[in-house]
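Example record

The entry below shows one chain as it appears in the dataset: sequence first, then structure tokens.
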Amino acid sequence: MVIFVCGLIGTGKTTLAKALAERFGFHYYDVDLIKKEIYPTDPDYEYNLQNSIPFSDETRVKVFNRVVKDFAELAKEHEHLIVDETLHKKFLRQILFSGAEKYFGRYGIVWVKADEAAIKERLTKDQREGHMLINPFEMYLSFKKEFEDFENADIVFENNAPFIESVAQLTELVRAKLLRSEKNKI
């Protein structure tokens, strides 16, 4: 199974995804590593970063196709993956969902939300080490304009509590709603 932890920039999806992977002993797949490889090949790379413009659908398709290619290899070694990504457009997210079904048999969706005040504080407090965004809050606002809601999220999680509390709550939700039907309960 692939568990997609998705939501807008600043909702805490990466931090939660890494914590879930650690708690369950699942492999964490870092889509940002693929972005760092493919985004610089976009002819508008510098302009988009300077102006907080999401990358083109064409560039995102390249990233997601690469992720699906990686799924094929990872499925040989791992029964479960945790993947975090904004997945802000329906047609783009379907690329990853189809790949997860093909190589892992099924997937689950955790949609992480947070209050905008909390998002702004997270994104303006300090720059995340190694992150490519120049102005994360402005990019959040750009993604927010393009975001298409999830009609089929398995879990909708409000990430406004302290980290330890949020991880504990989300761990129990994932266990109850996504992993209950797995052969070996985790």
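Notes for this example: The beta strands are 2-6, 27-29, 81-85, 107-113, 155-158. The helical segments are 13-24, 31-38, 45-51, 57-74, 90-104, 116-125, 136-146, 163-177.
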